[in-house]
């Protein structure tokens, strides 16, 4: 696809960008290699000070950045503003915790390994390629860049082609700090040129957030080159509701969990698995709330749901919905592409989805909720686990025994009880099964792109 800003609320192309030439790309790779030799030797306090400077810049730029996110991918403005603020918080989090996370781990009894000193230390790897998606144009990048830069690496960003202005802003952001030239660069290139960059000897690792096919491709190349890779791929997160749940509160949060970011988040709740004893009540409450949502211009304060970011994405969502209908599923509300400009899709609830429907197991990236019935907790957990993904899971119950069962048995990288799944800098984030491997955020996210070096010293 072309590298361009296209307003998804109107379908109008706002601005197009030329790809880097081979010569320009080579220059940027050389610059990254040179910058790494400087960044790795910078005192930690300078690297962390740069993160704090970047956070302050985000604070100052938050209004124009929120407008940019709304323009480029259709995020409603209140959520765009929240993303900018979360990104600033993430930068400050790593600035404040980097020294702790990178501290050497000393062996209490070095004599056990025949040494006077013995310890393990984290050191940077080099230029890291980040292949990032459009749905959180700032936050997805910051949660990689903040720990990677603090650890002494440098970043090369291949962002999604429909958010080029966000990508260029991120390069500008770090250039306005005390980091040296080339410490973080944006590569305006097509997806077809990622392989060339990843196979370059100067690039030592890769992180990708995106679709399962994209993850498979990047992982195969990285494996062939024996380079470290971290993948955060799709999700079809379950949202379980048991009889002891506060149904009104669960329904309120379910709307947020399914429709935030216009339903375009890997950790959106997508499958609502409801105990038969409260199924009808919960479905009625959810339907009431879905039908009250306002679809419209994402820049308007009264809008709840904006357009999908890509026309092709809306087509994919509608194909999954229509396939489910043909298989016998029942549309409770929504379920059809509206007339008019822009790539809007209505908040949709579908019940009675058979296992034969693609929607039963595939990720749907839009405001479509699938409501499934379970006879008991065991069946609910079986349904929740019956997908190839394992990113996050949420469950609503006030029963302590059920809570322990859910934490133990749900096949996911995170479990949230009586709330919805969301990422925090303080907690590791990632997936199991086909949702990927490796972790972002927290201490583990910083360690992914470091060399854990063992040191043994004899006097």
From TrEMBL:
Domain Aldehyde dehydrogenase: 3-455
InterPro entries linked to this entry: Ald_DH/histidinol_DH (IPR016161), Ald_DH_C (IPR016163), Ald_DH_N (IPR016162), Aldehyde_DH_dom (IPR015590), ALDH_GabD1-like (IPR044148), GABD/Sad-like (IPR047110)
Cross-referenced Pfam families: Aldedh (PF00171)
Keywords: NADP, Oxidoreductase
Gene3D superfamilies linked to this entry: Aldehyde Dehydrogenase, Chain A, domain 1, Aldehyde Dehydrogenase, Chain A, domain 2
Transmembrane annotation, as ranges: none
Protein family according to the UniProt entry: Belongs to the aldehyde dehydrogenase family.
This protein's name: Aldehyde dehydrogenase family protein
Organism taxonomic ancestry: Bacteria, Bacillati, Actinomycetota, Actinomycetes, Micrococcales
């Amino acid at each position: 696809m072309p590298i361009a800003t296209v307003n998804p609320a109107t379908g109008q192309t706002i601005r197009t960008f030329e790809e880097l030439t081979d010569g320009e790309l080579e220059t940027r790779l050389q610059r990254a290699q040179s910058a790494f030799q400087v960044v790795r030797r910078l005192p930690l306090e300078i690297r962390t000070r740069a993160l704090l400077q970047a956070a302050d810049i985000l604070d100052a730029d938050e209004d124009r950045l929120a407008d940019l996110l709304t323009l480029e991918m259709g995020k409603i403005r209140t959520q765009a503003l929240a993303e900018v603020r979360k990104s600033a918080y993430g930068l400050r989090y790593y600035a404040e915790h980097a020294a702790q996370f990178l501290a050497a781990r000393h062996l209490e009894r070095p004599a056990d390994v025949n040494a006077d000193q013995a310890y393990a230390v984290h050191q940077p790897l080099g230029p890291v390629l980040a292949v990032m998606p459009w749905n959180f144009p700032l936050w997805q990048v910051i949660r990689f860049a903040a720990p990677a830069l603090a650890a002494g690496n440098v970043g090369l960003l291949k962002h999604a082609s429909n958010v080029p202005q966000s990508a260029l802003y991120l390069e500008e952001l770090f250039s306005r700090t005390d980091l040296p030239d080339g410490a973080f660069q944006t590569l305006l290139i097509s997806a077809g040129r990622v392989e060339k960059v990843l196979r370059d000897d100067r690039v030592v690792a890769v992180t990708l957030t995106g679709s399962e096919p994209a993850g498979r491709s990047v992982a195969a190349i990285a494996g062939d080159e024996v380079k470290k890779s971290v993948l955060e791929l799709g999700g079809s997160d379950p949202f379980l509701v048991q009889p002891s749940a506060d149904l009104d509160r669960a329904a309120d949060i379910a709307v947020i969990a399914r429709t935030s970011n216009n339903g375009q988040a890997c950790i959106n709740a997508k499958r609502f698995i409801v105990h038969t004893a409260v199924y009808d009540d919960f479905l009625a409450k959810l339907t009431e709330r879905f039908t009250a949502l306002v679809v419209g211009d994402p820049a308007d304060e009264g809008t709840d749901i904006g357009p999908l970011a890509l026309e092709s994405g809306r087509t994919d969502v509608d194909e999954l919905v229509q396939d489910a209908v043909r298989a016998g599923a029942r549309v409770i509300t929504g379920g059809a592409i509206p007339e008019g400009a822009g790539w809007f899709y209505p908040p949709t609830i579908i019940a009675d989805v058979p296992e034969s429907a693609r929607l039963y197991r595939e990720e749907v990236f839009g405001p479509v909720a699938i409501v499934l019935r379970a006879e008991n907790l065991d069946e609910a957990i079986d349904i929740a686990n019956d997908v190839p993904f394992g990113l996050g899971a949420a469950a609503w119950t006030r029963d302590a025994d059920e809570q322990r069962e859910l934490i133990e048995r749900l096949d996911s990288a995170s479990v949230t009880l009586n709330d919805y799944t969301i990422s925090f800098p303080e907690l590791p984030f990632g997936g199991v099964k086909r949702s990927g491997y490796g972790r972002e955020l927290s201490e583990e996210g910083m360690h992914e792109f470091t060399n854990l070096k063992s040191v043994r010293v004899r006097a």
